[in-house]
Structures
1.
Amino acid sequence: MQFKLPKNNERYQWTLHSIEKMKFYGLSEQKVLGIIKRPKRKEEGIVKNTVAVMQPVSLKLDAKGKASWKTETWAMYQTRRAGNPKSKNQISNKFQNIQKLLYPDRIKIISAWRYPGVSPEHNPIPAEILWEIAEQGLE
């Protein structure tokens, strides 16, 4: 199967890193967008102002009705306002709904990956990792 490159448009922007990870893990553009639109879990990303979302792979229900899975697919993205940033200050409050229609939020997809197993919820980031991120200027 040949990998189809996702295309940037007015709603989504794909980073080179996310495209490389999609190739590596065999994820399609539709799969990543589906994770972003309908996540099972949503958490704060490890990079400042990012969101990480997850969908389980092969979700199964046991006899008690409890969901279980063995693999997760994750995506990390950042939401940015599209359009002219100067226009925000010039438009009054009653026209904000029109502005949202004209300039919807643009989603920058930073990464996508598969996690083997069930990841712990709200796992705090170790101080060492936060320090390394800050030192590299990725905040």
Note: The chain is about 30% helix and 30% strand.
2.
Amino acid sequence: MNCAHLENCLHEARKEAQTNLCAADRRASEYSALRASFLRLCGLFERFRNCALTQGGLIAFADAFCALAQSLANSINEKDDDVTIEFQKSIQILSDRVSFLSKHREELLEKYPKLEAANERLRKEVEEKEELVTTLYKKHQLEKQASKEKICFSRLEVHEIAAFVLNSAGHYEAINRNCSNYYLSAESVALFTYLLPIRPTYIVGQIVHIERQMVKPSSTRLEHPREDQADGPMSDTGTDRLTINVNPNLNPYGLPIGCEFFTVTVAMLPDTTIHSPTSS
């Protein structure tokens, strides 16, 4: 009875040992496969690392990456595990993307000088167009003002509306087709500019006084004119008469000797808009 029981126990122990041995062999085989896969992945990552650390810039990196992808594509084995195959496919996809980006970069580098030159031309054209638009805008504003307020561009007289433009010498000179040398008086300039940070490009106002003056040599001595002389002093009291002043030292506009000029005093118009040049 005891012998039979012992034989049964021995038989069960042998079966359990056989089962454990098979399980151990299977686990050893799986471990070997996992270790081999791990070593292959380590090798692949090492090759990828060496490729990423390639010196020589983007072009050298792209070439090395393409070479790695081609090498991995040629070494694909059906016995490789799924992880290794997926890694190799991922490297191939990355290689294609890197090649595309490298070619695109080369195309952009070729186009950049042309685009830069075109951009410079466009910038100059925009500056020229902007200057032209500014000039046309000023001209349009003057024409609009003239049309609205009937600015006088012929012979200037008291009560007429006149436009004065800032010239290169810094004086406000009247826009006049027939007569020249009509300048805005200092008092009128101060009236229109005392609240402005910079001087306006033009001034429009109603004439209240015109003073006629003559440029004469400083050495000339003048006698007090008689009242019955034709060119004697006449004070404008709100009519269209002129005041004659032959002060020999008065030549603020740099005119030649013997030249006649007029100093015009104006008043502001209702709802006058003073235009200042835009600061750049």
Note: Residues 151-219+230-267 form one domain.
3.
Amino acid sequence: MRRNQGFILLETVFEIFIVCLSTLIVLTTFASTVNILKISLEEMIYQNLISNAAMEIIIISKNEMQNVRVYDSKYVQGDFKEGGQVGLYYDNLTKRIYRFRSQYPSRETLISDKVIGFSYDENFLKVIFNEENIMRLYIKPESSPLPQ
């Protein structure tokens, strides 16, 4: 074997090493970009679910529920404007909040899961989604009509 062939062999090995190293750099950059995109999309989806749940709770509380008749630490129930009962039910075990409507055959509809806390005190409904997202909603009681 001549000296030139050894140098060419060493140069070829070095070039293969450089190509492999640059390929690894490109792949890790791509993988980290995909990972950042995945984390961002998961956060956007989670925030969207919280926003939708908050809007649904507001719609039920403001538009559908007239008088709050029954309430405790996990349940708020009032009169539905079209007759019957409507309310919100919180399950401590599964950390979910449901809509209750007496006219529906299934009676309960899932609004949101992963709810940390739920309470109704002195006309205020408090729903805690996480440490950053807390909703405190005033539900105005309907006054009864005066007798004439």
Note: DSSP finds one helix and eight strands in the chain.
